[in-house]
Amino acid sequence: MAFLSKKPLTIIIGFIIVLQLCLFYYYSVSLAREYRAEKADLASQAVMLTSNIEEKVAIVKGVSSFIQTVGFDADPALVRNYLVTAHTKNTSNVTNIMIAPDGLIRYLYPLEGNASLIGRSLLLDSSLASPGMIQETLRSRKITIDGPRQLAQGGYGMVIRQAIYQANSLEGIVSVTVKIDDIVNQLVYKDSNIYVTAKDHTFLFGNESSALDPQLTVPVNTYNQHWLMGVSLPSHKKWQVLSSVLWIDIAFLLVIAFILYIFWYQSRFNRELERVVSIRTRDLRISKRLYEKLAHYDSLTEIPNRRFFMDEFERLLQSSEPTQTYTLFFFDLNRFKEINDTLGHSTGDQVIKTLAGRLKSGSLPFKLFARTGGDEFVMIFQNLPHTQIPVIAGQISALISQTLLISGAHLSLSTSIGISLYPEHSQKTDDLMKFADMSMYQAKSQEDANYFIFDWELREKLEQKTMIAKYLHSALEREEFVLYYQPQINAVTGAMIGMEALIRWNHPEKGLIGPGTFITAVEEAGLMIQLTDWVLREVCRQLCEWRSLGMPLLRTSINISNSWFYNRNLIENLLAVLEEYGLDTSVLEFEITESTALLEEHYPLLQQMRDHGIIVSIDDFGTKYSSLNYLKHFPVNKIKIDRTFITGIGVSSIDETIIKSIVFVASQLGYDLIAEGVETQEQLAFLVQHNCPHIQGFLFFPPLPAEEIRKLAS
After folding, report:
1. pLDDT at 508
2. Which pLDDT does position 1 carry in this prediction?
3. What is the SS3 assignment for 193?
4. What DSSP element (H or E) covers 195?
5. For residue 703, what is the DSSP state?
6. Sequence-ordered strand ranges (E) for 593-682
7. Residue 408 in this model has a pLDDT that exceeds 80
8. Contact yes or no for 334/416 (Cβ under 8 A)
9. In 361-455, where does DSSP find H-type helix?
């Protein structure tokens, strides 16, 4: 125990002594609790015994009440009938019921086994009662219990009696004899240690216990009897309590032993630790310098990382003069993911490393240059004139676009650059980074320049998009969406052949908002299925309203997103809606995109729509895929020529040739055809001349509210 000082050892020994004293006290308390629990259970058994005896006494009370009512000289048949009834109700408890006018037994039931008692005197025959018990019954004028004792008719039981007086004159005695076995069986179980003794401890009934075991007793006072109910406490009860205390003691001692072992092990470990610490301290000094470099520099390119850049940028802004400006360039590599996917991530890492070295040594006058993650880089320029921004952007683009030879592959890359200005746009680093990031994505959507300087119009668009996403759920609940309908015309006959339902958001503050502003947010919020379901029901409702006003039903087309096709039980729900409004399937046309039509998993569903008579058309046909190659496989009925080709009529011979090809292939394959976005007479003439007379566009009608469509039809 040398590893322990004197004071801790004294504390441990003291703790063990206190523990033993506490456990002894706990043992005493637990044992006393066991005794209290046993005594409480015994008391409840005493109450049960008293209750059982009271049930038998109730018979005597009943007979006494009967006799006091009819009198001892009543019709013997009436008395015997009553005794039969009383005994029948208590057969399992009562041996006999007797009535003794003037103490002479005259009425007795049942007679079987008791016939010898008829005519005997309770007052004179000592064998019929315990010594002095008849006298006590007469003297007390109350119910008395005689026994338990050996009965005159055989067996062991009790006799419950009551003397009946008229004024001070004895008229007779009523008694009920019960076997003690009935009471015992209701009182205890066969394996119970409960017993009952007289006040002098003479055993009466129950299970006799061993005198060696400790005894618990409670008094039982019932009428003239004063008994003791007892139970023996087996020695194993003490052992159970003691064993639980011993287990606790052993557990604590094991914990103390474990603590002592820990102290011993810790002292040995400390000595070893002191030796290792001196070696580690030297290594840590070296590692600290390396860690500081890793924490602030990108391990791949060895230029500052995002953490260092943000800290340093914040320091620059806080220490800048009032007239000082900073320009933040945020740029990444266009289509860099394709390099990782096709050539592998190791080649991608080489590209990033090479470009970072090229930009770092490219004579750009930056104040800070860092890699913020993936293929994203940032540069800070101090006091850069606005006129130099295009120049710097061009230099960055030129450095990145120089051909790279990596792993035997010649790579030509491009970049998109977002730019934010301090303090013009913000004085906070996070805002400047966010604005530059927004601007970079705006630059990707431009065709004339690969950089974009942040402006407040861009921020307003982004805030509007955020606002739209925020209020979309409530807009559906408040039914803020409305439908406009654009007529489709047969240009040869001038007849209206159908309509396209176009959704609008009637925002309470912003007014009428077109789908181009909010439809992407609907997709991102996962509400496209709910919105499409609403459009479907609203179109059906409107068609029913027009029909009730006498208007002819025109086929109405609805734009369907790809996500709607994953709606469970789509066909069943669709047919249920049509049945609800009493509409035929021929009144609906579903417009889907080429990308949706190309998904073979949708073919069975599209085929079911066709089989049910629903027209399915491909919207914006010819804009994204080699459509003519796929056209023969599409399970659709109709093609809509995209407006981008229509605008090329009279301008681009290529667009005109594509339109002629689409018309020819559609006619050969049996597809219906319609041109959308027709706005000039020249476009109309070309389409009619080349067998595409079905037109949709502003040349005839813009999208109109439902009220205007009604006016057109009338």
Report:
1. 81
2. 46
3. coil
4. strand 194-198
5. -
6. 615-621, 638-641, 672-676
7. no
8. yes
9. 389-401, 429-444
